[in-house]
Amino acid sequence: MADVTFIGSTINESATVTFKAKEKLEGVQGIALALSEGKLAMPTAGANVLGLSLFTNDAAADAGSSLTIQVKDIGKWIAGGTIAAGDELATDAAGKAVKATDGQFIVGIALSAAAAAGTVVSVQLTKSGYKPKAS
User: Fold this and answer.
1) What is the per-residue pLDDT across 74-125, written as a single tens digit (0 to 9) for each?
2) What are the helix (H) ranges across the chain?
3) Is there a single domain that holds both residue 95 and residue 110?
4) Which InterPro entries does this chain map to (predicted)?
5) Cα(first)–Cα(last) distance of the chain, in Å?
6) Full-model pTM
7) Is residue 59 located within the same domain as residue 97?
8) Pair (66, 88) in one structural domain
9) What is the per-residue pLDDT across 7-62, written as a single tens digit (0 to 9) for each?
10) Quick one: CA dihedral 91, 69, 27, 121, positive or negative?
11) Is residue 11 assigned to a domain?
């Protein structure tokens, strides 16, 4: 982790919500999930998401099962590739954190780095809107 000092805890007692899964979902701990017809679903790459599925959720969820989602503050997110601290992050189609590119929704800012996919990074959830296209 970068040279960062957290005052209090590294994970805030932040706002969470609970929604039911629209369909069977696998590997849902530490990934971004979207809402579809009022239920949780895998996201579309680069799209807006509801938030991050907590690591305290079961690894898989059947359709209709409840999952707890963090919607703001500092959380943990599984990287989908190389990430540097300070990168604006978007989701890939697997719900993992990737560096945001033009036209993608910025979900948060990386507070720690990932040298490879599968690394858990700290992220400040910002939901900053869509990254502008370079002119």
Assistant:
1) 999 999 999 999 999 999 999 999 999 999 999 999 999 999 999 999 999 9
2) none
3) yes
4) Phage_VT1-Sakai_H0018
5) 34
6) 0.88
7) no
8) no
9) 555 555 678 999 999 999 999 999 999 999 999 999 999 999 999 999 999 999 99
10) positive
11) no
Q: What Cα–Cα distance (Å) separates residue 60 from each residue in 30, 94, 118, 123?
A: 12, 14, 17, 23
Q: Which domain holds residue 53?
A: 16-70
Q: Which among 74, 83, 87, 89 is positioned nearest to 113, based on CA atoms?
A: 83
Q: Are 63 and 97 in contact (CB under 8 A)?
A: no
63 pLDDT above the threshold of 70: yes
**Is residue 8 in a domain?**
no
Tally the domains of the chain: 2
Q: Is 121 exposed, middle or buried (0-12, 13-18, 19+ CB in 10 A)?
A: buried
Distance separating alpha carbons of residues 19 and 104, to the nearest angstrom: 24
